Every structure is written in C-alpha cells, then in structure tokens.
UniProtKB/TrEMBL annotation:
Keywords: Autocatalytic cleavage, Decarboxylase, Lyase, Polyamine biosynthesis, Pyridoxal phosphate, Pyruvate, S-adenosyl-L-methionine, Schiff base, Spermidine biosynthesis, Zymogen. The active site is at S459 (schiff-base intermediate with substrate), H464 (proton acceptor), C479 (proton donor). Binds 1 pyruvoyl group covalently per subunit. Heterotetramer of two alpha and two beta chains arranged as a dimer of alpha/beta heterodimers. The modification Pyruvic acid (Ser) is found at S459. It comes from Kibdelosporangium persicum. The keyword S-adenosyl-L-methionine applies. It is an enzyme of class 4 (lyase). HAMAP family: AdoMetDC_1. It catalyses: S-adenosyl-L-methionine + H(+) = S-adenosyl 3-(methylsulfanyl)propylamine + CO2; L-ornithine + H(+) = putrescine + CO2. Its EC number is 4.1.1.50. Belongs to the prokaryotic AdoMetDC family. Type 1 subfamily. Belongs to the Orn/Lys/Arg decarboxylase class-II family. The lineage of its organism: Bacteria, Bacillati, Actinomycetota, Actinomycetes, Pseudonocardiales. This is S-adenosylmethionine decarboxylase proenzyme.
Amino acid sequence: MIDALPLAPERIRAFLDDRRPPTPCLVIDLDTVRESHTRLREALPEARMYYAVKANPAPEIIRLLAAEGCGFDVAGREEIDLVLGQGARPELISYGNPIKKARDIAYAHRVGVRRFTFDSETDLETIATFAPGSGVSCRILVDGTGSQTPFGHKFGCAPAMAARLLVRAAALGLDPEGVAFHVGSQHLDPAAWEPWIAAAGDVTRSVAAQGVALRGLNIGGGFPGRYLVDPPPLSAYADTIRAAIARHFDHPVDLAIEPGRVLVAEAGVIRSEVVLVSRKSDTDDKRWVYLDIGRYGGMAETENEAIAYRLQTAHDDEPCGPVVIAGPSCDGDDVLYQRTRYDLPLSLQAGDYVDILSTGAYTQSYSSVAFNGFPPLRTYFVGGHPASVPSEAGEVGEFAGRHVLAEFEGVSAELLDDAPFLCESLQRALEKAGATVCDMTFKQFEPQGVTVLALLSESHASIHSYPERGAVFIDVFTCGRVADPELAVNLLRDMLNAGVSRISVIHRGQEDR
C-alpha cells in the first residue's frame, strides 16, 4: 500500500467525460487525497503529520484531512480560520511560518494554537509576549540543492544561532521543542534529509549541554509528487529518515512532518483545451501549442520549468513531434515549456483536450484573479465519502451542501429578456450538473426582465435578469454530494456568453457528520 499509485486519473476522466465542464478546469479526486494520506501515515507512523495548507487550501480537502486526524501547518490567521472552520482541532495546528505579525500570533494563541516555529530573535520574543507558554521550534537554514523548487535563504538561521535561541526560549518561559528544517519542495533524493538531521542532532546536544532538553524534530516537507520523472518510493524516504535519526540522536525524538504536495498532487487533473497550433517559420520543426491555461491561470510552477507535468491527449498513440507549450495570455512570459522536451501528436489541433496530470498541488491556489481577463481556475471534486460509510448513488436531502451565488455582466439584452431561453438554459445546466429538476416557473416583467425559479430534489436554483444593464444574478443551492452547483453556474455563464463573472461559493452545514 505504501508505494502503490492511486487511480485518480481514471476516476477523474470518467467525471470529465460525463460532465464535460468548461475548460480549463481542475478536478480533484478526494479518495486519492485520503489514499495518499494513508500511504504516508503507513510509511512514517511515528511522525505527527501537519498538512501544508498552502499546497491546496480547498475546504473539501481540509475537511477530509481533519476527519482523518491530520494536523495542519498554517502560514497566518486566514489559514487558521480556514482549518478551524473545517473541523480541525487547535492543538493539531502548527503555526510554521517564521514571518508573523504580533497580532496574528496573539489571535492564534487566543483560538488555541500552541505550537509555533521561529528563526529569529525578534519573532521568538514576540511569541513569548503574545503566546506565553507555547511550544516552539527553531528552523535552521539548509542547502536546498536537489530540490526542484528550493527556498533559498529566506527561511532558517545558522545552527549555532538556533542553539542559542532555543536556550533563550526556555528563559522566556516558552517550551522549546526542538529543531525544524525543510529541504525544499519536490526533492527526489531521500539522502538529502541526512545532513540536516545530523545538524539538528548537533543543536540538540549543544542545547542539552546548557541545561535545556529538546524532545522534538520537525523535518518539514519536500516529499515529492509524480511528474515526468518518477520519484523514489515513499519507503525509501522513510527508511533513510529513520536510519538518520538513529545515527544522529541518542534518544527517541518526537518526529513531525509537514507534507503538502505528496498528499494532493496526484489527486488532481487539469483539463485544458488547445487554442492554437502554429509554427514560427516554414522550416521550424517545433510547433507552438497554445493552451487555454497558462502560468497565471494555475501553472505557476512551470516558472523556470521547475515542475514538468505529464500530459495526455486522446491521440497519444499517433505519430508525435516536438512542441513548445504556451498559455493564452498576452504576457510574453506566459510560456510553460521551451527547454523541456515535450512531444505531442502531429494531429493535435484547436479544440482538442490536453489533460495535465498530478496537478492537485500549487495550481488553483496560485491562479490569478482574472489576469488579462481570464478567470481563476475552476475546481471540481469527486469522491470523498467516508471510507466507513458507503455512499448511495442518489443520496440527497441532507441540509449540507454548496450555495453558489453569481453575477454575470456583458450579456446580450435580447437573451436576458427571452424567458423560454433562460428556462431551457437553466434546466440544461442543472441536469448536466447532476441535479434533479422537479418544477420550474418564471415571471416576465415589464418593460423587461425575467425571473426563473427551479425547485430541485436537492434544493433550489434561480435566475434574475436585468436586460437594461446586461446583467444577470444566479443562485444555485444543492444539498448532499450528487449535484455540482458550481458546474451548473459555469455552464450557464458559457451559455450566456458572459463577459464578466463574479462567483462565490458558500459551504453550508457539515457534509461529514
């Protein structure tokens, strides 16, 4: 189980082929998130796990991991509120960001957070003032060589300074737990952890010699996802870490890890559409393939081509040739891959789909707010039912679900005053999104404007149009897990050819009781 690969692409592709949501979109398979959490838990059962929320802060993922008993590594007040709102216990939250405002430290302490990481004397003193008695770890500076996305020198302090600060932490009335470090994200060499475990052991002994006993070791994240290059198995990382701790510590340690990518990357697939295929000259052997997603729409980790995603098309068994892959915006830096070798089918053309695999981490959370007019990356979720409670295919009616509110502008006044068209569009969008329409009615206003109301087995939906403004308001609420109100709203946006859209999603009730 530890080194087994999840089946997310197959399950996600079934959703994509059935629902055909507008592209680009990200689909997350929540069952794979659970499977990945279990794999890592089995590989390092002795470690306390704090999910790095920044990897993918979707409430659906946070809720699932909280139900699995996972802790959370947060960067600030907003992430604290997020995880608490999804059922996390405050004692399982680690405020791991060493760059913190005093008021945010005070807030964290007030809501029950008792574990902090620091790498400077100033931050340590601020923690002592606003979070008295808390447990603290000092992050040491590491060489991130070998990491696909290293942290440089932004975080951590020299080991000698860490030893001094941990002794001072005890003098300030805090509970010094131990040393923390992070080897950098997407690390493909399990041996990279050894020298920093050794450094942490040295700090621990130095602090002990000054009368302060440390019990903890936080080795951060860095556990990789699967991209073009297959990583070593998780068991190789676990074996190396365990052996290094045995070599460099003369007592048992309270081990902590902060995984992010390894829990969510393989749970996601982005479906994109080819916008254009072209060449730069008649003799150019490389085609340029422009997708409807780029660096500002969720593919930020292609900067410097650090992360090379696996791609799939419907024509992969046909002859292929080299390509440059770029995004759709008018920014010259919106090129995904020029140096990394990619070959795509020679038959590829505008309108074809390109699926980008292992995109569950650092994609949607990086997507911009409508840069160059392109909307943020839409995200859908499949799976996620509690493992111990089989789901019924038609289960609805529980007062818990998603409430989607949307405002579209730039819509044709003629369409917005066409009641039959609006009724038909709402019904088609709802049924495509898996909702059951029980009844529908409308009211045509004078001199113009239409309200459409749909009663659903899952709850309700409505359209309110304002033709004179070219605007329309959409309200879709569905209980349970069967229907996807976000998909319905996005389908309506495309049917109406809206120029501007503002969409908000409210999670009502607790879907997992």
